[in-house]
Design goal:
- The complex is a heterodimer of chains A (291) and B (384).
- Chain A has 14 helices and no strands.
- By secondary structure, chain A is an all-alpha fold.
- The two termini of chain A are 32 Å apart.
- In chain B, helix 2 crosses helix 3, helix 2 packs parallel to helix 4 and helix 3 crosses helix 4.
- Chain B has 10 helices and 20 strands.
- Chain B is α+β, with helices and mostly antiparallel strands.
- Classes of the chains: A mainly alpha (291), B alpha+beta (384).
- Chains A and B meet through helix 9 and helix 10 of A and strand 6 and helix 2 of B.
Chain lengths: 291, 384
């Protein structure tokens, strides 16, 4: 390919059409976000009379303050902040523990193979394809037996169990591309099972750790079904609180507050994506191409 | 007493018998090369010495001590792997020092040891780099540094040069040899490259299908092969193997080889007593390309020269040598001649056969036909 072709190709009609279509879909995709953001900064009066797509005439942060601190959810009027921290309390341990367990599984399934390791991996993989709804009742029973019903710790457990399938898949595929000789060399050097994992494999796993964290963080943070089933009331995560907020407003619907609350609920996942997004694709590639 | 003794070692993977009783003894300071085609069990044997594979039967002794059950890290063995297996997240210094760190060597001592090895291998300027930032040859050196730093009793090399390009491979081969000469270490080295085996080894073990074919000095294995496989595997271009019939011509034992319309009667010099029993029977003659030359290049001090005019089929100049191909017994035969005035294909030229270097094999069993006195020589050959 000559050096001139990329420049020449930029202006072909087919290229222009392609870009136009892509641009159209990008705009279409971002439109709801735009409406949410602008609406959340408008006064209620302006929303009721104005154009949905117009920018606020008068910017106000009041809906955000209300959503965070004083909006009524059910009978309590203290905003979503408590639930926001609930979600953090659920997400952080759930992501860390399921990630670590997945990494261990991947390590054992690739570097310390045992008889039947394929079946074990197959079963773990199978858990990725079990629909959420199927496990609701048995899980409720298990949480009851463990005295973890209606608590954030119970929800953490549920997310860990549900997440292991995916985290194991990620790490197994990543470690499958690691040469086995690495483990052998470390054995000759005198390192044991845990030492090899923590000193050699884990520090070289940054791309797949990022993938796992993003994947688990978004899934756990955005989960609604498990949250509404296993942690109602004060221990509910923010997704459940958002639903309750939208449903429990009486009289006039405070769209601006609802939108602000929805933005609060969405911001953490956005931040994770922006900070780690570029590793995400890279890590997904390295995990999927080999292994 | 031998330093490393591999005593009737077997390996089974389920139903398959991978190693069928390997017996090898080497002395301290020896450079043993295990060579053979892929799947011959040489890497398995190396892994068993390292302790990375279990031993099904037999015994491994290092310096008189049974090591079958010892953990790899307690065998006082270091290994250089084919993929180098450098720890990707550690610096070069970290890689080299990791084994010492695991053995709880104090930091200052560790640093001195790393420095010493880095100087030896000329990688001092790379110590803070990560393996990903190194070239193939540099990685190779770091992998060797990691093995050297622990100053083990035995070094194992698993095809360490196979990932390098041809030029670098030759350079590193020389360096490994120099390192061995300088440090006097005992090395077991696995390769499928017979040239590597010839150049590096003080002892070669040729393996095939989980069995040891021959153990001896490079020269013994080259000049005095135990069977057809060893004869064909060692040497490049490989030994000419020509069908012939042994006959008695006026009291002289000869090998009759068909050459176009005529028949050559090559006098038998080696293994004469053994070959007397093969009179009027088919054998396979083995002649190295350098044992078939032009009359002026022929080595007349050593042995008996037999000359004949034969038709040239093909000429292959390599610069240093000239390979002339002719046809003997229906098989293309390579002769190494003096470069300069190449004969023309299709014409006749004079060939000189150094029959004192000629060996014979049983075409059925593929075993060497040799006089009993010689029979033991290559197997337990003293250092040349």
């Amino acid at each position: 390919m000559s050096a001139a072709t990329p420049a020449a190709r930029r202006f072909t009609p087919a290229r222009m059409l392609l870009y136009a279509i892509l641009l159209f879909f990008a705009v279409l995709y971002l439109l709801p976000l735009y409406v949410m953001l602008t609406t959340s900064f408008k006064t209620l009066a302006e929303i009721q009379q104005g154009n949905m797509l117009a920018l606020p005439r008068e910017w106000t942060a009041a809906p955000w303050r209300e959503a965070w601190g004083s909006a009524c959810i059910g009978l309590e009027c203290s905003g979503v902040k408590g639930y926001f921290f609930n979600s953090i309390q659920i997400v952080v341990p759930a992501v860390l523990i399921s990630g670590l367990l997945g990494a261990f599984n991947g390590y054992v399934l690739t570097k310390w193979r045992f008889r039947g390791h394929k079946i074990v991996f197959g079963l773990i993989l199978f858990s990725c394809f079990i629909p959420f709804q199927i496990i609701l009742l048995p899980m409720a029973r298990v949480l009851g037996i463990l005295h973890l019903a209606n608590s954030t710790s119970g929800l953490v457990l549920v997310h860990i169990v549900y997440g292991i399938g995916f985290t194991t898949l990620f790490f197994r595929n990543f470690y499958a591309s690691f040469p086995d000789e690495l483990v052998r060399a470390a054995q000759l050097d005198g390192a044991g099972f845990f030492r090899i994992f923590f000193r050699i494999l884990l520090p070289a796993s940054v791309p797949i750790i990022v993938v796992t964290v993003i994947w688990q963080f978004t899934n756990v943070w955005n989960d609604f079904l498990f949250g509404v089933s296993f942690a109602s009331g004060d221990s509910a995560p923010i997704t459940v609180a958002l639903n309750n907020l939208v449903n429990s407003s009486t009289g006039v619907k405070a769209y601006n507050v609802n939108m602000a609350a929805a933005m609060v609920a969405a911001v953490p996942t956005l931040i994770v994506y922006i900070l780690a997004g570029k590793y995400f694709l890279r890590g997904l590639m390295s995990g999927s191409v080999k292994g | 007493m031998s330093f490393l003794h591999i005593d009737d070692v077997h390996k089974h993977f389920g139903e398959t018998h991978v190693l069928k009783g390997i017996d090898i003894e080497i002395d301290k300071g020896d450079f043993l090369v295990l060579v053979g085609p892929s799947g011959c069990g040489k890497s398995t044997l190396l892994n068993m010495i390292a302790g990375l594979d279990t031993i099904s039967e037999g015994e491994l002794r290092l310096d008189g001590r049974r090591i079958n059950e010892l953990h790899p890290s307690r065998r006082d063995i270091a290994m250089v792997f084919q993929s180098y297996a450098l720890y990707p997240s550690m610096s070069v210094a970290g890689n080299i020092g990791f084994g010492l760190e695991m053995r709880k060597v104090p930091k200052a001592e560790r640093r001195a040891a790393i420095q010493r090895v880095a100087e030896l291998l000329q990688i001092e300027n790379l110590l803070s780099r990560k393996p990903g930032q190194l070239s193939g040859g540099q990685r190779q050196r770091v992998a060797m540094g990691r093995a050297l730093v622990r100053d083990p009793q035995l070094f194992l090399f698993d095809e360490p040069l196979s990932n390098l390009d041809a030029k670098l491979r030759v350079d590193m081969r020389t360096e490994i040899k120099q390192l061995h000469q300088r440090l006097g270490t005992t090395i077991v080295y696995v390769t499928h490259d017979q040239i590597e085996a010839m150049t590096l080894a003080t002892r070669i073990a040729v393996m095939r299908g989980g069995e040891l074919q021959q153990l001896g000095t490079p020269q013994a294995v080259y000049d005095d092969p135990n069977n057809l496989f060893v004869a064909g595997f060692m040497g490049s271009p490989s030994m000419n193997l020509v069908p012939a019939r042994i006959a008695d011509r006026d009291g002289k034992l000869v090998a009759l080889v068909e050459a176009g319309e005529t028949t050559l009667a090559l006098p038998i010099v080696r293994d004469r007593e053994a070959l007397e029993g093969w009179c009027n029977r088919q054998v396979m003659l083995g002649l190295r390309p350098e044992a078939i030359t032009d009359p002026t290049s022929a080595n007349r001090d050593g042995g008996e020269i037999f000359e004949a005019d034969l038709e040239v089929e093909l000429v292959e100049p390599t610069g240093a040598d000239l390979y002339v191909v002719t046809r003997l017994g229906g098989i293309s035969v390579n002769a190494r001649m003096r470069p300069g005035s190449p004969p023309q294909p299709g014409e006749d030229t004079r060939f000189a056969f150094d029959v004192s270097r000629m060996v014979a094999f049983d075409p059925e069993s593929e075993a060497r036909i040799r006089t009993a006195v010689d029979a033991d020589a290559p197997v337990q050959a003293a250092s040349a």
